[in-house]
Specification:
- The protein is of the alpha+beta class.
- It folds into 2 domains: about 70 residues, NADH-quinone oxidoreductase subunit E (Arc Repressor Mutant, subunit A); about 80 residues, 3-Layer(aba) Sandwich (Glutaredoxin), CATH 3.40.30.
- It is built from 7 helices and 4 strands.
- A hairpin with a 2-residue loop joins strand 3 and strand 4.
- Helix 2 packs antiparallel against helix 3, helix 3 packs across helix 4 and helix 6 packs parallel to helix 7.
- The longest helix is centred in the last third of the chain and has 13 residues.
- The structure holds FE2/S2 (inorganic) cluster (FES).
- FE2/S2 (inorganic) cluster (FES) binds next to helix 5.
- The site of FE2/S2 (inorganic) cluster (FES) has 12 residues, from helix 5.
Length: about 210
């Protein structure tokens, strides 16, 4: 574990005229989520999920829009988005390969699986292939320790991976034009982009900030 400084104080926010948090998203938050909770803060995770599901990452402008809509400070939104691995704080490839790096998977061959994926894609963890198709991230426990090593590929859980099977899967996913429809939800500077996807997994705190 290491401290990774966040350039939030000096970061430049790229803006666009069209809001990221659409009226449809606001309506869903208002009608489906906010009535369940006593505080608007409790709807922050669903709001971030919506943004990431739609855009495959959480742009800084979107964080500001969420903060304004929920009556929170932008710092609250930023803190939450940077705490959980599943939120991408920089644009990622169309496909996300997330390998569990927690202890059961590590003992059961995760380093070899990750290496096979790195060799197949020609990228390191936290990077995206030059064609923009696939990015590789590492995740904390996916709750599938009994069938380790495990990985999420475009939010689909793959278990008992071998290096050969992992390489085969990433070759398949790279040959696809777009990821399959996500089941649930889905900035900062690129150097903070060691993030992870959500999916079947629980929200996993980032291991370092
Ligand atoms: S340690 Fe990898 S799924 Fe639990």
């Amino acid at each position: 574990m290491a401290w990774i400084p966040k350039p939030s104080a000096s970061m430049k926010i790229e803006r666009r005229d069209e809001p990221y948090l659409t009226q449809a998203m606001k309506d869903e938050l208002s009608q489906r989520y906010l009535p369940r909770f006593e505080t608007t803060l409790a709807a922050l995770l669903p709001a971030l999920h919506m943004i990431q599901h739609e855009y495959h990452w959480v742009p800084p402008q979107a964080m500001e829009e969420i903060a304004e809509f929920l009556g929170l400070s932008p710092a609250d939104v930023l803190d939450t988005a940077t705490f959980y691995e599943e939120y991408a704080l920089a644009p990622r490839g169309r496909h996300v390969v997330g390998v569990c790096r927690s202890i059961a998977c590590e003992f059961c061959g995760q380093p070899q699986v990750t290496q096979a994926i790195k060799d197949t894609l020609g990228i390191d963890v936290g990077e995206t292939t030059a064609d923009g198709k696939v990015c590789l991230v590492e995740l904390e426990c996916l709750g599938s320790c009994g069938t380790a090593p495990a990985a999420l590929i475009d939010e689909e859980l793959h278990e008992q991976l071998t290096p050969q099977r992992a390489a085969e899967l990433v070759r398949q996913v790279r040959s696809q034009d777009a990821p399959p429809p996500a089941s649930g939800r889905e900035g900062l500077a690129p150097e903070t982009a060691s993030n992870a996807p959500k999916g079947a997994s629980k929200s996993a705190p980032k291991s370092a900030h």
